Amino acid sequence: MTQPSKATQTLTDSAPRRSLWRHRDFLLLWGGQSVSEIGSSITVLALPLAAVVLLDAGTFQVGLLTAMSTVPFLLVALPAGAMVDRAAKHRLMMWCDLGRLLLMASVPLATLPGLHLTYLHLLIVALLAGVLTVFFDVAYQSYLPTLLEREDLVDGNGKLGVTQSFAQFAGPSLGGVLVGALGAARALVADAASYGLSALSLLLIRTPEPPPHANHKERRIRDDIKEGLHFVVGHPILRKVVACTGTSNLFSAMLLAVEIPFMVRVLHLKPSGVGLVLTLAAVGGMVGGLVARPLADRFGSARIIWLAPLALGLPAFLAPLATPGWGVLFYPAGLAFFGMMAVVYNVAQVSYRQAITPHALLGRMNASVRFIVWGTMPLGALLGGVVGTWFGLRPTLWIAVIGSYAAVAWVFFSPLRHMRDVPTAPDPG
After folding, report:
1. pTM to 2 decimal places
2. What CA–CA distance (Å, rounded) separates 178 from 195?
3. Looking at beta carbons, which pairs linking 326-330 to residues 24 or more positions away fall under 8 Å?
C-alpha cells in the first residue's frame, strides 16, 4: 500500500507545525493575494452597477457581462494548466496582475470629460480580465509548493482559501460603500490598486523558483490535458464532487446575474443599501471559515461534504422571500447561510481532492476541476439573464436557489455517504 505523503498526513495529524506567520515570502504572497481578491470582489458589484447606472443596461446585458468574466474558465482553463507548467510562474503572476491593473483602470478613465464609456468596453474588460485571472489562479496554486515545505501546504492552502471565501462575500459589501461614495466607475480604481499591490508583493518575494521541467517540452499539451481530465472524470467519487460543485456554480451564477437588478429594481435599494445587505450576508462566510474545521472533526471530514449543503443550504430559501422594507432582511439572511454552507463545503471537498490526488497530478487536477466547475458559471449567468428577462427577477431567484440546493444529490448518492473521513494517502488507482 502506498505510504501517505507529508502533505496528506497533515489532514489528520494534530501535532503542531511551524507557524506560517513567520514565513516572510508566504506572508507576502498571502497578503498580496488577499488584497487582490478583495479588489476583484469589489468589481463583481461595481462592474454590473456601472452597466446598470451609467449605461441603463437591461437584465440580459447584465447577465452577459457577468458571463464574460467567467467564460475564460470554460475556454482557456485546460490549456492554461499545461502552459503554466511550462512557464516561470512568479513572473507570469506579476504580468497577470499588471494586465488586470490596466484593464480595470481603463473604465474610470473612459468616464473622464471628452471620453465615452460603452457597454462593449465593459464586455472587453470583463473578458480579458477573466483570461488573466485564469492564468493567475492556476499559477499561484502551482507556485505555492515553491515557497512552502510539503508539510505546510495544507496550512497554506487553508489560509489562502479562507481569504478567498471572505473576499467573495465582504468585497461586494465594500464595493457598495465605494460605489455610493465615488460612483460605479470610480470604484473600480480600488480593484486596479489592489492588483498593483499584489504585483509589488510578488516582486518582493526572494525565494528562487526552479526552472520549468525540461520534459514538458517533449510532451504535447493535449496529452497533459487528457491525463488530468481522465483522472478527474474517471475517479468514482471525485467526479461526483465535481458534478455537485459545477451544478451549484451553474445556479449560483444564475442568481448572481439577477442579484443586482433584483436588489435595485425589486427591493428598491440604493448602492449604499446594496452594500449594507451584502455586508450582513458576509457574516455567513466568516462564520463558515470559523466552524469548518470543528464541524469536520465532529461529523467527519468526508461526511461533511454532503452534510453541509444538505443542512446548511436549507435557509437559503429565505432569499427569494425578500420584499421592500423590513422584508429586505430575508435576502442577507438567506445569503449568510448559503455563504456559510459554501465555505464549509469547499474546505471539505478541497481537502478531499488534495488527499486522493498524486502529487504529479495536482496541477492538472486543479485545472481540470476549475474547467468544469467554473466553466458552468458563464452558462448560468447567461441563463439567468434570459430567464430573468422572460419570467421576471423573483422567479429566476427561486429557480437559482432550488437548483443550487438540489446539487447536493450528486454527493449524497455517492460512496461519500458511507465514509466518515477523507483518506490519508493518494488513491493508488
Report:
1. 0.71
2. 17
3. 328/267, 328/269, 328/273, 328/277, 329/280
